[in-house]
Amino acid sequence: MPPSHLAPSAPPPSRRYLCLKEREEIALLLARGVGLREIARRLGRAASTISREVRRNAATRSGGFDYRATTAQWHAERAARRPKPAKLAMNSALRQYVQDRLSGQISRPDGSVVTGPDVVWKGRRLGPRQPRRWAMAWSPEQISSRLRIDFPGDETMRISHEAIYQALYIQGRGVLRRELTACLRTGRALRVPRARTAGRGKSFVTPEIMISERPAEAEDRAVPGHWEGDLIIGLGRSAIGTLVERQTRFTMLLHLPRLPGHGEGPRIKNGPPLAGHGAEAVRDAIQFSIARLPKHLRRSLSWDQGAEMARHAELTVAADLPVYFCDPHSPWQRGTNENTNGLLRQYFPKGTDLSLHSPDDLEAVAAALNGRPRKTLAWRTPAEAPDAVFANAEAGHVATTG
C-alpha cells in the first residue's frame, strides 16, 4: 500500500521530497539545456538531489534517457511503497552466508564442536542481556564488508550491516531468528563506567622499563613482533592470559590452570598463588608460548603493572623479550589488547570459572578469533598475515604451565 504522504487525502508533501510541480519544472529546464546546478539553484535544492532524481527516475523504456515529470513521479511513488521485501528473505544464499558467520559453531583442531559453557545472565550490574554462547560471532559490519572479498563479482551477495541488525531486531523484518542476537558481540544494554581505585606502586616497575621507553617502531605498528598482554579474570580467581601482536592482531591464549592445594582450605594472606596466575606461572606460560617464535617476532611485550609480572626480568633473559609497563590507570596504552579482551568476553563471560577450559578449548577460541576479518586489516583476518611475518611460527598455539 502507498505511504500516507502519497494518499489522495494526505496534506501536501514536505520539502523533504520532490513534488510533481518541481519535477515538471526540472523537465522544462532540462529541455532548455539548463545545467543541473542551475536547476538546483532555481528550485532551492541541493545539486546532488537533482542529479539523483534525474538518474533514478528518468524514462528509459525506449532505450533513451529522457526525463518526463509524470514518469518520474510514477517511479518515485513506486519506490515509496511499503513494506518492501527484505533482501535476506529473497536471497537464500545470502541469508545462509550471514547465519553461518553470525552463529556458526567453532571447533577444536580435531573437528569436534566446542559448545562452550551454559551461561545464564543473572541481571547483575550491566542490565539485561542475552545468554552468551560460543559461535563464529562475526559482527554485522564484518559480514557486510567481507562479502566484497569473498564474492567480488556477484552484486547479489551484498547487504549492509544495518539491514542485518534490522533482520535481527525489528519485528516484521525478522528474517533471522531472534535467538541469534546471543551471537552478537555484546548484549550490553548500557555502559557503566568502572570505578578507578588508587593503586599502590609496584617495586618491580622502574623508570627504564616504562612504556615511554619502548622503541618508537612499536607505536606505528610498522614492524611486527611487538606484543601486548594481560589477564582476563573469572570466577574463583581463575584466569586466562592473552597475548596480541600489535601489527597483525594475532592472538595467543595462555592456559593458567590452578595449582595443587587450591580450594582445600581457607586462603592464606600473602600465601602462595595457588589460583594459577602468580608471577611464576605467568612467566612460564609466556616463555613457553612466545619463546618458540622466531627472534624477529619477539621485539617487546607491553603489560600493565599487575603483580603477575613481578618476574619480568627473568622472562626477559629466558625468552630474550624486553618487557615494558604501562602507566597506572592507562588501559589505552594497550588498546589492541584491551579490544581483544573485550572480544574474548563473548567466550569467557564474567562470573564464570575460566579454569574449566582445557588448552584445546582455548586453541579453538584463538583460532576462531584469528579467523575473523578485521576492519583495520582491510577485512583480512589475522590468520591471513603475510608468510614473511609469521614464518616458522606456530599460529594459534596455546601455552600451558604443565
From TrEMBL:
Any Pfam family the entry gives: HTH_38
Record key words, sorted: DNA recombination, DNA-binding, Transposition
Name of the featured protein: IS30 family transposase
Coiled-coil regions listed: none
GO cellular component: cytosol
GO molecular function: DNA binding; transposase activity
InterPro entries to which the protein is assigned, alphabetical: Integrase_cat-core, IS30-like_HTH, RNaseH-like_sf, RNaseH_sf, Transposase-Integrase, Transposase_IS30-like, Transposase_IS30_CS
SUPFAM superfamilies: Ribonuclease H-like (SSF53098)
Summary of the function given for this chain in its UniProt record: Required for the transposition of the insertion element.
Family: Belongs to the transposase IS30 family.
Limits of the Integrase catalytic domain: 211-390
One of the GO biological process terms: DNA integration
Superkingdom of origin organism: Bacteria
Stored PANTHER family: TRANSPOSASE, TRANSPOSASE INSI FOR INSERTION SEQUENCE ELEMENT IS30A-RELATED
Organism per entry: Palleronia aestuarii
